[in-house]
Amino acid sequence: MATMRRRFASLALACVHQEYPTRIGHVLMSDADIQAPRDLTPSFYGCYDWHSAVHGHWLLARLARVDANLTIECRQALAKSLTKEKLQGEFAYLSNSQRSSFERPYGLAWFLQLATELDEWANEEQQNVDEIRQWRENLRPLETLIVTRLSAWLPKLLYPIRSGEHSQTAFALGLILDYARRMKNVAFIELIERRSSDYFITDKNYPFPYEPSGEDFLSSGLAEADLLRRVMKDRSEDFVAWFNEFLPPNVLPSTLEPPSIADPTDPKLIHLAGLCLSRAWMLEGIVDSLSLDSKQKERRDQLLELSGRNAQAGLIAIDENHYEGGHWLGTFAVYYITRRGLNNTSVCQNYTTTALVLCLASKFFV
C-alpha cells in the first residue's frame, strides 16, 4: 500500500506545477486576457486543466495527512500553490461575471473537496498546523464565491445532467454535500438534499445496460445511488428500499464489469480507467449503506466483488509514461484506496475480496 501511495503522490507532484501541455476553458474578454495559464490561474495551472490541478492538490493534501512518509514533499508543493497572493489571483479570475459557469460543477466540487480536506487537517492535533490553517484561510474567498454560485445555480437546474463526464450532476453533488456537512452550512445542505431528491428519488429500474459510453469516467447510475445513500445516511431503511427498486435484487448487469481500454494513450479513451476506479468506490459506498440490512449480505458480497474487479482494472491501467491518464488518475486511485467519502470504512475492509484486490494491484506498483 505504501508503494501505491508513493506512486500516486509522485504523479501529482510531477504535474501540479507543470504548465504545459495545457487545455484551458477560457472566456476572452479582451486582448488582456491572452495570458499564460500561470498568470490566469496562478494556483491551479498545472496538470493539463484547472480541475485536474485542483484535485491534484487534494491528492497531495490527502496523502500528506494519511502517510507521514509523504508529508514533507506534499506540504512543500502545497505551500508553493496555496499562498494568499496566488489564491487572490484565482478569485479575480473566477469572479468575472462572464465566467459564471467556469468548471461547473466538476471542478468546483473538487475545490470544495480540497477545502474539506484542509479544514479537517487544520483541526487535527499535530505539529506545524499553523501553515495548514493559513492555507485553509487563503481558500475562503474563492470558496465563498463558489458556494454562492452553486446555491444560485441549483434551483435553476431543472433537470439533472446524466453524462459520464465532467457535467454530471450526481457525482458533483456527492462531493459538495460532504463539504456542506463538514462546514455545517445548513442552508446549503438542505438545498443539495432537496435538489438531489427532486432529481433522482423517483428513479426505478435504472438502465445500466446502456452504460458505459465510450468516454465515461463516471457511472451516471452508480453516482446517483452513491449520492442518495449520502442524502439518506440517517435513513438506511429508506435507502435500501429505494436501491432495491433502482437496481432490483439478483440483477447485476454485465456492463458493470470492467471495460476494455483500447488505447491508454488516447486522452478520452483512458477515461474508462477512471470509470473503473469511480465505480469501485461508489459500489463500496453503496455497500456501506446496505450493511445494516442482514438480508442484504449476499448482495453486498456481489457488489464488493464487482467493486474489486473494477478497482483492479483501474489501478493496473495507470501509467506515468502516458500523461493523458497520469495527470489525473492518481486522484481517483487515492480517493478509492483511502476510502474517502465512506461513513463506515470497517464494513468494506472486513471483506477479503477488497483487501485481495489491493494486494494484487500492489504487484504492479513495485
Give the arrangement of secondary structure elements.
Elements: H1 2-15, H2 37-40, H3 50-66, H4 71-81, H5 84-94, H6 106-122, H7 129-153, H8 169-182, H9 186-200, H10 220-231, H11 236-246, H12 271-290, H13 297-317, H14 323-326, H15 329-337, H16 345-349, H17 352-362
Number of helices: 17
How would you spell out the order of helices and strands?
HHHHHHHHHHHHHHHHH
What fraction, in percent, of the residue positions are helical? 55-70%
- Percentage of residues in strands: under 5%
Structural class of the helices, strands and pairings?
Answer: mainly alpha
Quaternary structure type: single chain
Biggest beta sheet summary: none
Runs in which pLDDT lies below 50 for 5 or more consecutive residues are: none
Rounded to the nearest angstrom, the radius of gyration is: 20 Å
Tally of discrete structural domains: 2
Q: So what's the overall shape?
A: globular
Average predicted confidence as pLDDT: 93
Span between termini? 10 Å
Quantity of strands, as a count:
0
What does this structure look like?
InterPro entries: DUF2891. This is DUF2891 domain-containing protein. This protein has 2 domains: 149 residues; 210 residues, no CATH class. The chain is globular and about 55 Å long. It is mostly helical. Helix 1 packs antiparallel against helix 3 and helix 6 packs parallel to helix 8. The relative contact order is 0.11. 60% of the residues lie in helices and 0% in strands.
